[in-house]
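Here is this case:
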Amino acid sequence: MSAWLVTGSGGMLGRDLLARLAAEGEPATGLDRAALDITDPAAVRAALRAHEPAVVVNCAAWTAVDDAESQESEALAVNGTGPRVLAEACRESGAVLVQISTDYVFPGDAGTPYAEDAPTGPRGAYGRTKLAGERAVLDTLPERGYVVRTAWLYGAGGGNFVRTMIKLESVKDTLDVVDDQRGQPTWTADLAGLLVRLGRAALAGTAEPGIYHGTSGGETSWFGFTREIFRLLGADPERVLPTDSAAFVRPAPRPAYSVLGHEAWKRAGIEPLRNWRAALTEAFPELLTAERQTSVTGQ
């Protein structure tokens, strides 16, 4: 069995990935931000020498989208320089590198799902820095570099849209939610399983290096997503009211259309993720428990 190293393991996806690897009997080490600064070449090389992974999955990222607008150089260090440092170390060690990226590398003005090879064109600093990380991995490690773009992530192991809506349902009579941004809600536990399958296929030589889109099937708006959350709560979905993005002006522009295509998985013989509604239904009890525990403990 292969050895795995997960950077950024303290985050929502990193936690679920480590749990999935453990459940499948894969030896794995997780290094959170305190344990490894991915922008430090000496520290990264030392980590790879110490753990000798066959697969490195980089879940470390600057994810504060709005803050990136005023702190782009800091975001670029984590999202652009860090992946390049990891790719260089993997080139030396012979490891496969899986870099997690984002729908924000696209302009968000399409009307049909973005293919893996569709032209990029980020509209904000966050997307620019993540695109820099993609290019660093693919240029530095062309034979063993993989990029998995994802979007609209939620899970039990961190703050996210689903848990926020669960909380707000109990304190708000009605909620105004934008209906002019479309995407694919994606459960981190589902994505974790997909990453494990990709890593194994990479080692077996059955998945070509390059770009993959790790999002759930189907699509919805934030408004539609919230109504489904209310339905699962047993609350009246009519309490969720549609509005548009102009009602929530933020420093960073949000993509109006973040739906991603999944053809690369089929070419690799890997089944893409299931429909977002099915995933949310299965995930919901765990999310509800996590949010209620947080409300009780305040942590």
Summary: The longest helix spans residues 72-93. The radius of gyration is 19 Å.
